[in-house]
Write a structure and sequence with these properties.
By secondary structure, this protein is mainly alpha-helical. Helix content is 52%, strand content 3%. α8 crosses α15.
Length: 531
């Protein structure tokens, strides 16, 4: 407005551009006929809106039994709605009209009650048909006063009055069957006389929304920019849980995603976990379905995306069904119940986690999960011991059988065949390390079956967890030295490696909050830190 007072060329350019944008040069009617003449364009709009507002259609009526199940208007509210309008109500409404509103087009209050100015608002960026415009009525003051009076009275009893008329055009509802969805909307349309606007509705068939495609591309890009090959398995596991598994959560809570999309997501996460990249041609050390089990069942606690998608959508469907005050929901849910579509109780309150646990196939609890997963064990140590318990460590005896290695001799001692039992239990290098770590803890650690014992006779629960964490650290560092010996031909002295293991455990104990532990546990930890 300030530039307008100066009568600048910029101001006139803006006005000219706005006029050109608002001017309708040509339009197609609802039958597809093109009109360019001004009078014909006006006629196309008038014919279309007269067809919408001036036509008659028969309805089947609303089922009274369904309406009575919801909230209805009480006698008190009915009398209030029908009572005469008071002067106080009119004054309140008039004084709530903003000061910058004019009484009418010329500044005077119009005598006609239904005189309005119709403005066409485009629904899309470049409208081409009469269907892509929305009419807005700019009402005069008297009309606004009457409508506001009615709204104020309805607001008083809005909690008791069912909302019969809802914007079905903007409702985005999911059901397992598209035919059921169409039958549901048709049933509500015959009862209410409202019709769904196809131009304002979206449907996805056997494919995926563009947003989900972009999320998958973001996932691939994030993997390529993380430099994750330098991370340990544990570091990649954290990124899979916190980053990669969250990209599609938004879409998975609204749609049943296609199997191909979920498979692609799982392949990306699996390849990233085992290789740190997008493409991974070798077989993983542990199958993905095992990794998606609970930790107590021998898995990594990762989600099965297919089941989680189903659980999330089931919650959405039940959430919609709980909206019993909406007439179209009553009609919709009635159809679904008759067809036994969901097989779920609409009154049941549950979370996605509970629904996921209900859908998944339960596995047997493994006895070693508490030895691997406890808060005192460093995560990268736990991951390697988890692979060990699945029996999938690539020792030389396995590589030799696959013709990958020229021999099966132990990389450390060079005296026996390198099996898991020999590497961790029989090799003199491993025995020396475990004995030295046991002397530091002032206990005798068993050699044979070191990862299968239960520590029934040793200390409290906290002390057992710390001892298990120490054993897991031994396995991790021994395996790491084995790889260095094989590829880099370097091997750390057992005494130095034992000190390195002890330093890891001490650092772990210092980083934990020990203030809530019992006195004997605190004294035991303090003795280890000082020894």
């Amino acid at each position: 407005m300030i530039d307008g007072d100066s009568n600048t060329a910029y101001f006139h350019g803006i006005i000219k551009a706005r006029r050109n944008k608002n001017y309708i040069h040509q339009i197609r009617d609802h039958n597809g006929n093109l009109f360019e003449d001004r009078q014909e364009i006006q006629g196309a709009f008038l014919d279309y809106y007269q067809m919408l507002l001036g036509s008659r259609s028969s309805t089947n009526g609303v089922r009274k039994a369904i309406v009575q199940r919801g909230k209805v208007c009480s006698d008190i509210h009915s009398q209030m709605f029908l009572s005469p309008i008071s002067h106080e109500e009119i004054k309140e409404v008039m004084f709530h009209i903003p000061n910058d509103k004019a009484p009418g087009p010329d500044g005077q209050i119009l005598k006609q009650l239904n005189a309005t100015l119709i403005t066409l608002i485009p629904k899309v960026e470049r409208p081409a048909t009469v269907l892509e415009y929305r009419p807005i009525a700019c009402c005069n003051v008297i009309y606004k006063c009457i409508s506001k009076l009615l709204c104020n009275r309805l607001d008083v009893g809005c909690s008791q009055v069912p909302r019969y008329l809802q914007e079905l055009d903007n409702a985005m509802t999911y059901f397992c069957s598209m035919m059921t969805l169409l039958k549901t909307f048709s049933s509500f349309s015959r009862a209410s006389g409202l019709k769904m606007s196809k131009g304002k509705s979206n449907a996805y068939f056997n494919g995926v929304a563009e947003g989900l495609k972009n999320d998958i591309l973001k996932m691939v890009h994030r993997i390529r920019t993380l430099g994750a090959r330098k991370l340990s398995y544990a570091g990649r596991l954290i990124l899979v849980r916190a980053v990669l598994k969250t990209f599609h959560n938004y879409w998975a809570q609204m749609f049943i995603l296609p199997t191909g999309i979920i498979t692609r997501i799982e392949v990306i996460c699996r390849n990233f976990l085992w290789d740190g990249g997008v493409d991974f041609m070798r077989s993983p050390l542990v199958a993905w379905d095992k990794a998606c089990k609970l930790k107590t069942e021998g898995g990594l606690g990762l989600k099965n995306d297919v089941l989680w998608n189903r659980a999330a959508v089931d919650k959405l469907v039940l959430w919609i069904a709980m909206k019993s005050d909406l007439l179209w929901v009553k009609e919709s849910f009635q159809v679904a119940i008759q067809q036994n579509l969901w097989g779920l109780n609409p009154a049941q309150r549950f979370t996605i986690a509970k629904a996921y646990d209900f859908l998944r196939v339960k596995g047997d609890e493994v006895q070693w999960h508490s030895l691997v997963w406890n808060k005192w064990t460093i995560l990268k140590h736990s991951f390697l011991v988890w692979i060990y318990h699945h029996g999938n460590m690539n020792t030389k005896d396995k590589l030799f059988k696959l013709n990958i290695s020229e021999d099966d001799t132990c990389c450390i001692c060079g005296m026996s065949s390198e099996s898991i039992d020999h590497l961790f239990f029989d090799c003199h290098y491993s025995k020396s390390i475990i004995f030295q770590v046991g002397d530091w803890m002032d206990i005798r650690l068993p050699i044979r079956g070191v990862l299968r014992w239960r520590l029934e006779k040793i200390g409290t629960r906290i002390q057992k967890d710390i001892i298990n964490a120490t054993l897991n650290a031994c396995v991790y560092h021994i395996w790491r030295q084995r790889n260095l010996s094989r590829h880099d031909l370097t091997l750390l002295h057992p005494q130095k490696l034992a000190l390195q293991i002890i330093a890891d455990i001490r650092l772990r104990m210092k980083g934990m909050d020990n203030s809530r532990l019992q006195a004997n546990d605190q004294q035991w930890i303090q003795s280890l830190l000082q020894s």
